[in-house]
Amino acid sequence: MARYSVDDVVKYLDRYLSIRHITDDDRALNGLQVENSGRLTRIGAAVDASQASIGAAVASDTSFLIVHHGLFWSGLEPLTDRHGRRIRTLHAGDIALYSAHLPLDCHRVVGNNWLLARRLGLRQLKPFGNAHGTFIGVVGNRATTRENLVRTLVSELGGTPRSIPTGPQRVRRVAVVTGAGASLLRQAREAGADTLVTGEARHHAFFEAEEWGMNLILGGHYATETLGVKAVAAHLAERFGVEWGFFDHPTEL
User: Fold this and answer.
1) Which residues of 63-101 are buried (b: 16+ CB within 10 A; e: fewer)?
2) What is the pLDDT at residue 153?
3) Measured distance CA(61)–CA(6) in Å, rounded
């Protein structure tokens, strides 16, 4: 008989990530989104609650799947077609689905932004970037060249980052907001950053970076948000004495 149940994991994770105390987009619906029978066999991690990731969880006998983007990012949908398939697959595989969006971005141990900031070699880290009343980004110091910062990002995440080199060639203070974080460019500037590392940006972000004299480095929305789910799954696996795995389904976006 299993020592722990999924309910034990959920209660622990709700506290560990402060799920009930961090305001988020209503579509995030942080916390347990789909329950299972309670069995805990293996923990899985994925960036998105996509059909491919759910299918991979079923194939590996995962019973608890934690994702960064949950089932409801497209808004309210009837339980038919692709949305219904995902729900039916979760139930058929007896998989509990747990989502953590901003609570995972801002966590100082397993959060996307803090992990990436450390991997980029930033020092004297401080939170910045207000989203729904929570500082989700990280800003820190690293004296290096813009090109070397990009090389470090490639080494840590892979892929081919897009660089908008409209700031200093020698960078000194770097802000990090994973995913679609370019909307916080102004706040990064106010925090003293000359460079913002994020996942993706809208068209107008180019002109903001150019006219403020800042570098904007885009590592990919998906790629920059793989770190947190891996870290929290590894933490849970150690805490509850089970195996874990990451289900990689990159979008190249």
Assistant:
1) bbbbbbbbbbeeeeeeeeeebeebbeebeebbbbbbbbb
2) 98
3) 14
What is the torsion angle, in degrees rounded to the nearest 10, for the CA atoms of residue 142, residue 147, residue 148 and residue 154?
110
Place of tokens 């090389």: 151
Q: Which tokens is 1 given?
A: 């008989």
Q: For 82-105, give the DSSP string.
A: HHHHHHHHHHHTT-EEEE-SHHHH
| Rounded Cα gap, residues 64 and 57, in angstroms | 9
Give the C-alpha distances (Å, rounded to integers) separating 80 from 29, 51, 89, 94: 20, 13, 12, 19
Q: What are phi and psi of 47, to 5 degrees?
A: -70, -40
pLDDT digits (tens, 9 = 90+) for 67-116: 999 999 988 899 999 999 999 999 999 999 999 999 999 999 999 999 99
**238 three-class SS:** helix
Q: What is the dihedral of CA 199, 204, 210, 213, to 10 degrees?
A: -60
In three-state secondary structure terms, 141 is strand
